[in-house]
From TrEMBL:
One of its GO terms (biological process) is carbohydrate catabolic process. Signal peptide: none annotated. Keywords: Magnesium, Metal-binding. One of its GO terms (molecular function) is hydro-lyase activity. Residues 176-276 form the Mandelate racemase/muconate lactonizing enzyme C-terminal domain. PANTHER family: ENOLASE SUPERFAMILY, MANDELATE RACEMASE, MITOCHONDRIAL ENOLASE SUPERFAMILY MEMBER 1. SMART domains: MR_MLE. The keyword Metal-binding applies. This is L-alanine-DL-glutamate epimerase-like enolase superfamily enzyme.
Length: 402
């Protein structure tokens, strides 16, 4: 039998009392801990004129016969994610995910990922099925951490860091002046970096974008990191033109200037401009991320609610071998935030945490113990599992019925 320290990672968890507890637990748990239910809760608030993905949520709850409950989150199309989980068995290569997990041992996280992956060949491999698997994967890691009474990052190998720098992530305002006001507020709130994206940015004249970035840089100061999310607005040639024009403003990165599958365009752009390029939030396969790496992307942007931790750790290891930094994508709620913190804490090539600056009401109220930014940093959760729990009254309030 492996030493218990190698099962839960290294560090402070390895004390004699803890080892005795977990040794006793692991000797009995395989007879008693089984998955009894997998539930998907689609939450939806008011979809506003300028919508973002924090206005919806798809929560995954996994229950066990030991009374341990795990929570995860899946992004993408929440209605489709729910259908993928709840669909019945059809054939060995077409199955709903709930059917595959009932009666299984939740501690076998990696084996269950492979079981889901192999049993959805006709419907999955990338996209919505993997997104649904990601929500389940996060819930399984949450259960495993709670069962062993350790935070998830210990299960992933331990911490490289206990605090992660965070940047404020938000949408652009409608005028340069309003964007400048927003930048000042973000700096006043203690952030040392920010990202603004979407809206009309990149979709009008280049001069408008320059005025916007100039106003933000002037308001935020030279020491503040500034990134922009172009939201697939450009062709490769237009991206080259605009990236060159933005160089005087020393951007931290330009995010997703091209559509996600324009790999030739990304390679041309990455070879042409000195400004670093971030992409990957749409990817939901190891192969997809490798293709982006081969195209010359500088920052590998992983959304844990689309990949799960199991896949994300594989992607991060490949990126690290190539000398590339990983960042998270998060425009949903604090289940994603917590999972991202454990992930970024446990890998050597983490850079910075995306933190939703002014999300919709669901994201603001969903978690009983929300994660907060202090002086531009976020502490990595040290509670067992992911370290966050949903407010069930909020789940009930926003639940889509029928």
């Amino acid at each position: 039998m492996l030493p218990i320290c190698s099962l839960v990672g290294n560090g402070s968890a390895c004390n004699p009392d803890f080892v005795v507890f977990v040794y006793q637990y692991t000797n009995i748990r395989r007879e008693v801990v089984k998955i009894t239910d997998v539930q998907a809760f689609h939450l939806r608030g008011d979809i506003e004129a300028l919508p973002d993905s924090s206005m919806e949520a798809l929560l995954v709850k996994i229950s066990t016969d030991a009374g341990i409950v795990g929570w995860g989150e899946a992004d993408g199309s929440r209605a489709i994610n729910k259908a993928v989980i709840e669909a019945p068995f059809s054939s060995p290569v077409v199955s709903g995910l709930r059917h595959l997990l009932l009666g299984e041992d939740p501690m076998n996280v990696t084996r269950l990922w492979k079981k889901m992956y192999d049993s959805t060949i006709y419907s999955g491999r990338e996209g919505a099925v993997i997104h649904a698997m990601a929500g389940i994967d996060l819930a399984l890691w949450d259960i495993k951490g709670k069962a062993l009474q350790v935070p998830v990052h210990q299960l992933l190998g331990g911490c490289f860091r206990s605090r992660i720098p965070a940047y404020a992530s938000t949408l652009f305002e409608i005028t340069p002046g309003k964007n400048a006001d927003l930048a000042r507020k973000i700096v006043d709130d203690g952030y040392t970096a920010m990202k603004m994206g979407w809206q009309s940015f990149g979709r009008g004249p280049l001069a408008d974008d320059i005025r916007t970035i100039e106003a933000i840089r002037h308001a935020a100061g030279d020491a503040t990191g500034i990134a922009v999310d172009a939201g697939f607005a450009w062709t490769p040639k237009e991206a080259m033109r605009r990236a060159q024009a933005f160089e005087p403003y020393n951007l931290m990165w330009i995010e997703e200037p091209l559509v996600p599958d324009d790999l030739v365009g990304y390679e041309r752009l990455s070879n042409f401009v000195p400004t670093e390029i971030a992409a990957g939030e749409e990817d939901a396969s190891v192969n997809g991320f490798v293709r982006l790496m081969n195209a010359g992307i500088d920052y590998i942007q992983i959304d844990l609610t689309k990949t799960g931790l199991t896949m994300a750790m594989q992607v991060a290891a490949i990126a690290n071998q190539r000398g590339l930094k990983c960042i998270n994508h998060n425009f949903s709620n604090h289940i994603n935030t917590a999972a991202s913190l454990h992930f970024l804490a446990a890998i050597p090539n983490a850079f910075i945490l995306e933190y939703g600056y002014n999300p919709a009401e669901i994201a603001r109220t969903l978690i009983l113990n929300p994660i907060v930014v202090n002086d531009g940093y976020v502490d990595v959760p040290m509670e067992p599992g992911l370290g966050v729990e949903p407010d069930l009254s909020v789940v009930e309030r926003f639940l889509v019925r029928g």
